[in-house]
Amino acid sequence: MSGGAIFMMDAESRLVEMREQPYDDELVLQKLLADYPHLLAGDQMGEGPARRWLLVSREMPVMIEDEVSAYGYLDHLFLDQDAVPTLVEVKRSTDMRIRREVVGQMLDYAANAARYWPVERMREYFGRRFRHAPGAADAALADFLTGEDAEGFWQQAKTNLQAGRVRMVFVADVIPPSLKAIIEFLNGQMDPAEVLGVEVRQYVGGKMKTLVPRVVGQTAAAGVKKPHPWTLPRFRQRLREKKGDTAVVAAERVLEWARERMPDFFYGRGTMDGSIVPRLWIEGRRYLFFSVYSSGVIELSPQWMKTMPGFEPDERRREFLERINRIPGVSVPVDAIARRPSFPVTLLQSDEARHAFFEAMEWAISVAWDAAERAPDVDGGGSGAAATDDVPVEEVG
Known about the structure:
Elements: E1 5-9, E2 15-20, H1 26-35, E3 53-63, E4 70-80, E5 85-90, H2 101-111, H3 113-116, H4 119-128, H5 136-145, H6 150-162, E6 167-172, H7 177-189, E7 194-205, E8 208-216, H8 220-225, H9 232-243, H10 245-261, E9 264-267, E10 275-282, E11 285-288, E12 290-293, E13 297-300, H11 302-305, H12 314-324, E14 342-344, H13 351-374, H14 393-396
Parallel strand pairs: 5-6, 6-7
Antiparallel strand pairs: 1-2, 2-7, 3-4, 4-5, 7-8, 9-10, 10-11, 10-12, 12-13, 13-14
Helix pairs in contact: 9-10
């Protein structure tokens, strides 16, 4: 502890010297975070809107496979307003475990988050916080979401977990230099996961205490490399601003259909407009057929489909575009098989138009499955390289 001081001025213009002082116990800081989540300094975490926090549970149990016994406990599990799971571990700077043990523990939790804390368990433990006040959990969630759909929020949390989009936060009175170096290294390497440290320094003067939170380990390079990914609520808001409610309804119905068949959604990181890319996985291969953009367009993916089994022949991708042209009002060049043609999402507002779009996508899905059934088993390498290595999906979004 540096032993520094800050000065408060009281109502009579007298300075009160506040000396930096360690917490008596890490449990004190844990309780403060549970009671006052703003201490996590969400306004200092990158560009864009300040992060807001919904506490799922304090001492969130880490369940082993039998789902009966816990072999560990996460200090806090939060969700931010974009439903990004935020894992928080609290230690005092004097605790030697903060330098090594807690890092390995946190990485274990993050790597297995979808298994340890499926969204159903999150909802259960969030509800337990209000078990003595019927209806309070729903009211607290509604107040946090400020009008957004609760089911959509939990679904977004599930999507984030499946995509590994989590945030790991180490909290201490002072982050040691060794831990800061680890945080900076991990934060620069991980994507879409994020690693941060938050110092919450305590200053005491007489009967007064002052807490000063500060984010550490957020390097300029990491900030440029990893802008916040788009989320469904943010995407919906931007699309409504640009194209109105009609476009939002059309896009949501397309995405609802896609979620049943291609549930792995990739969220782009565009600075001006966002994208949502439904992805189909078959035996380790990734298929991309279209993307939905907050600018109000459906973008097709014949450029990437060339690398996907079943779509290598040019005529197969032309047939895909011909089927797209059966949608009333849509006319994309059938020779655009090396590009990414698009059309307005508002053309899919009618049942007839959406049915034609879905038929084209069902055909593409069936081609992918047929190709997978015909393909010989490949044990690594060779001509059967997985589509994950061939398609730069980050360029799609």
